[in-house]
Specification:
The protein has about 140 residues and is of the alpha+beta class. The chain is built from 4 helices and 5 strands.
């Protein structure tokens, strides 16, 4: 696995893990990578300093630990938030504009819907949705 620092067309920087450079390029060309801040899928690698040497102290999580943490995050979200499916943008707006009481939600939004939410100043996050099993 390789960690790249990425930058969207709007200048937001974020990190992404990829199997190798070819995997990054394939996902980039197919528009599968989206900025977690604004949803833009025009993404390039940002300039980054190389990591010299391998030290257990430099990487706080192994890939297996990271996977377990993401599975636990998914479990927490599913346990404490309402699933709204493809109505995520609509429901986020209702919460933001005070039409319904604030509560945790999760679901899906298109890159365009994500950009629109961001343009409206509605804060949201995107997390990697890791399958809970290897099967």
């Amino acid at each position: 696995m390789i960690l790249f620092t990425l930058r969207c067309a709007d200048g937001h920087e974020f990190e992404g893990w990829f199997r190798d450079n070819d995997s990054f390029e394939a996902q980039q060309q197919s528009g599968e990578i989206a900025c977690p801040e604004c949803g833009a899928n025009r993404v390039e690698k940002a300039v980054m300093a190389p990591a010299i040497g391998r030290s257990r102290d430099r990487m706080p999580f192994s890939p297996a630990q990271m996977r377990r943490a993401l599975i636990e995050l998914r479990r927490q979200v599913e346990s404490h938030c309402d699933y709204v499916g493809p109505r995520f943008a609509e429901e986020a707006r209702k919460i933001h504009y005070g039409e319904v009481d604030p509560h945790g939600i999760y679901g899906e939004a298109t890159p365009e819907e994500s950009r629109e939410l961001n343009d409206e100043g509605i804060k949201f996050g995107q997390i990697p949705w890791v399958p809970t099993s290897d099967a």
